Amino acid sequence: MTSNINFYPNNRIKVITEEGYAKSIIQDVDERTLSIGLPMINHTYIAMRQGEVYEAIYNDGKGNVFKFKIDVIGRKFEKIPLIVISKPYDIQKIQRREYVRINYTGIVNYYLTPNYPTQNLRNYDILDFNVGYALDLSGGGMKIKIAEEVKNGDYVITQLKIDDEDIIALSRVVRVERDKEEKYICGLSFLSIEGNEREKLIKYIFNEMRKTLKTNRGDGRE
């Protein structure tokens, strides 16, 4: 997709880092660059160094959400410190339905690695997978609970059954918490999932939402 996104000062942008989603605000826009405030996670500034490449998510305020890559060009100071980044490339438009999330509990097989997988996802041996538990699910990611130590930025191959069909996805860990049992609660963002499998997943999510709404109404209407 070519860059036809409209950027405006004071619009929000999220930078995807190893620590999670870092929030920032666009301060200045010119023909070739954007200047953003120092990105923050939980009131902590995230360092962005010249030459680094990041992915970011941006809502243009008109109902369109985009995911793209940016290069860090440098820093400048205009009343506040700013990060200067390139205009986006490798742009993807994110469908709103990918954000619809449902509670989902069940077993999920997973393979954890710090390195980006180089072979086809279906070539991995299921015997090398561990067992975790899914906590919620959307078309764009999921939350799982596992016993194995995991870090932000790690990669996870997940396999779960949806309507008796295997859904295999490559994800990146974008958030990690510990629960009272000292288990790891991981927020995963899907990086790669076959188009037809994503459609099956989204269809399943919306069917479950309709069932829940029907049950809550208790009147039998669809």
TrEMBL record:
Domain PilZ: 95-206
Domain Type III secretion system flagellar brake protein YcgR PilZN: 13-88
Source species, domain of life: Bacteria
GO molecular function: cyclic-di-GMP binding
InterPro entries xref list: PilZ_domain (IPR009875), T3SS_YcgR_PilZN (IPR009926)
Residues forming coiled coils: none
SUPFAM superfamilies named among the record's database cross-references: PilZ domain-like
Protein name in UniProt: PilZ domain protein
